[in-house]
Amino acid sequence: MLRDKFREFSRDTSSIGQERVDGVNGLADALIAAGHSENATVAEWKDGLNEAWADLLELIDTRSQMLAASYELHRFYHDARETLAQVQHKQKQLPDEVGRDLNTAEAMHRMHTAYEHDIQALSAQVRQVQEDAARLEKAYAGEKAADIRRHEQAVSEAWAELRGSSQGRRRLLLDTVDKFRFLRAVRDLLLWMDGVRLQIEGQERPR
Fold first, then answer.
1. Which of 22, 113, 122, 202 registers the highest number of CB atoms within 10 A of its CB?
2. Which of 156, 167, 159, 137 shows the shortest CA–CA distance to 88?
3. How far apart are the first and last CA of the chain?
4. CA 183 to each of CA 77, 177, 190: distance values in angstroms, whole numbers, following the listed order
5. Mean pLDDT of successive 10-residue segments in the chain (207 residues)?
6. Model's pTM, two decimal places?
7. Choices 1.20.58.60, 1.10.3080.10, 3.90.190.20, 3.40.50.300: CATH for 1-203
């Protein structure tokens, strides 16, 4: 990766360069201390060398910061696209069927509870995308900032839709389970009443 290669280059260049600059500075100081006839020229060259070295270090630092910022932006785009794809995939996994009877409705409700735990794990990724976008938007302006906002909004809107769909399905499943429980209670009561009626009708009539 370019950023890692430049980091290694920067570290090596700074270390080797500082050693060489220190060596030349030491030589210049020795010449000046010895009262060399070209003291003024030596001092001037020494100052020029140190200024050039400081400029080079600043250039290396600026380049490092640019690469780090570029890497962070590309990582944000990658994370946002990946999170959006995962959220959309989970949205497609939501079934429409609610069950034909109490047993299947209860089974689907249990499956949906597991599904909700599953999508809850995505909330951390969504939150990270939102936090990264808020931080990066401050560092960029114009089209880049707008693009960062678009990526974050796509993730946030898809996440809100998924949560809404999931909550809606949970309510529907609970209503379906309640309906089948009610129908079973009604059926059991009617069967009991039929049994009582049969018992009554089966008894001898009074003479």
1. 122
2. 159
3. 104
4. 52, 10, 10
5. 62 76 80 80 85 83 75 91 96 90 93 92 93 89 90 96 95 94 94 90 69
6. 0.67
7. 1.20.58.60
